[in-house]
Amino acid sequence: MSEEPSEVDRFLALVAAAQEGDASLTAMQAALLVAAKLDIARDSRSFGRTLGIAHSLVLRELNALAEREGVLEIVRRDPRTMRVHYTLPPCSSR
User: How far apart are CA 66 and CA 71, in angstroms?
Assistant: First the structure.
């Protein structure tokens, strides 16, 4: 019997592959990149809710990623909710 991998398994495999491709990525940073690539979440609050992670932790990892050249682009910040909207650069291979 052949079972197809679940969406969660696929997501986790892509996160692991992203980390293998860049050993400096934390698991959450890799997950942020994969979530953007798969259009699962493109803002910090949605990502945190979807994965059950505190928004403050997501913001910390997102800001660390944004400091790296060409990895991730911050599109907009909402000062009231602290939600950060982000996207991958057009030529990102992640």
Answer: 7
pLDDT higher than 60, residue 83: yes
The tokens describing 21, both together, are 């491709």
Contacts of the segment 17-24: beta carbons below 8 A, 24+ positions apart: 18/94, 21/94, 22/94
| Nearest-10 crossing angle of helices 55-66, 27-37 | 80
What 3-state class would DSSP assign to 84?
Answer: strand
Query: Is 1 a residue whose pLDDT tops 60?
Result: no
pTM of the model: 0.86
What does pLDDT average to over the chain? 90
Q: Does domain 7-87 have CATH number 1.10.10?
A: yes
The mean per-residue pLDDT over the stretch 22-49 comes to: 94
d(CA 4, CA 70): 34
Sequence spans of domains, the chain: 7-87
